[in-house]
Amino acid sequence: MVSGPENPSPHIPPCAEITGMGWAAPGVASGTAVVCNALSVFPIATPLSYASHRARFMHSVRTSFPRPTCFRHSGSGGNEPDECRQRKRPENQGGNRLIVTEYVQISIETLHTFLSRVFVARGFNAADASFIADTLIDADRRGISSHGVQRLAMYDHKLRHGMIDPNAHATVVSDVKACAVLDGHSGMGQLISRDAMELAISKAQNHGIGIVAVRDSNHFGTAGFYARMAADQGLIGLASTNSNPLTVPTHAGLPALGSNPIAFAVGQGDDQLVYDAATSTVSLGKIEVLVKLGQPIEGDWAVDGQGLINHDSADVMDNIKATPRIGGLTPLGGAGETNAGYKGYGLALMVETFTGILSGGLLSLDMRGQHICHCFAAISLESFGGAPLVGSRVAELSRRLRSMPSVDGHDVLVPGDKENTAFRINTTTVTVDEATFRQLAKIGERTGIAAPPAIALDEYR
Predict the structure, then answer these.
(1) What is the pTM of this model?
(2) Where is the composition biased (Basic and acidic residues) (predicted)?
(3) How far apart are CA 362 and CA 124, in angstroms?
(4) Can you tell me whether residue 23 is helix, strand or coil?
(5) How far apart are CA 74 and CA 78, in angstroms?
(6) What is the pLDDT of residues 199-256, one digit of tens each?
């Protein structure tokens, strides 16, 4: 059950604590209460904990200039403030102005049907279309909105323009004992990656380890999805990919590496440990979401062409889309050497080696929108005491870490905890931002398929 005003999370203060601060937007007498309750009821699609959302909201309210609150649900009519009807890119995204974004909830069942039908309309068979839909919904259920249904617009564009071949299947380039290289022939990244990880799992079961590099594929969604495929079968799973040039090397001003994520999974069930993160400070999807929401970049995630930090999400995206590209994402650790950004740069190079170099495919530096490379690995635990023993030790380590005292009021977690919690909550619906919701409607019109409706909540009627 989703936490709400009458069923609050034990870690989230009641809405009264927020509304009692005395802030009110002009013309919206209870705007704070509306958004407060919204943050409680809506499982907002982000890896951030709900408590973090509320804390960030409280901070924003305290430091913001008053502005009308924009929050709509299905059937909300047209009486919202003018600036809510027509959002413009903020002149100064780096300020403290509060922007409250509209979200809608969609039935998972209805959304899955819609996504499957769209992919069938684009040339996939029913089984493959259903699997692709599964991967997108899985991301949204886990709170990874950057790689959920908001990616449908990108996939639809590439399918319509022949950049993804719905009929392509991976073929073997080389296969020697525990290792193999596959060619994806510009197929759908999720399908190519599923087959590659299944091959890696088979090799691990026969040889103790399996490593499969892939070339000429496409965006594959969340790397963690494939790492979990191996972990669910009692193995250690690893997945990585390169991408278009997005990340700026230390001391440079131009992008040369992808976001190059690394995913690792071990254990099963509630105690499964899943690490899935870009080697850039954030993935590009996080910037895309901020642009949709009209929000600035809070951290030092990106730089301009002179290597200076850029907090304007729309400007960062414009620079990344420019020809040639200008600036880009910072590596883990940030720009320069002060916070050891060269370590993130080095990790990105490691991923580039496993993906682009081992597969014989394109490097991020040479990529222009397609022909992406991946690498998948599965490791048998039989030589290390077996999956049950390793899993129990992972669970015990996680328990000890979670039991550590907090110094800032936030629980000590292990990788995968937030996503697993969101997954357990989001059993019947997922939440998407209104910009993505409009994109679904547009794709529905284009394909002649009815887009999923928003679910209205009684609390906002």
Answers:
(1) 0.79
(2) 82-91
(3) 26
(4) coil
(5) 11
(6) 999 999 999 999 999 999 999 999 999 999 999 999 999 999 999 999 999 999 999 9
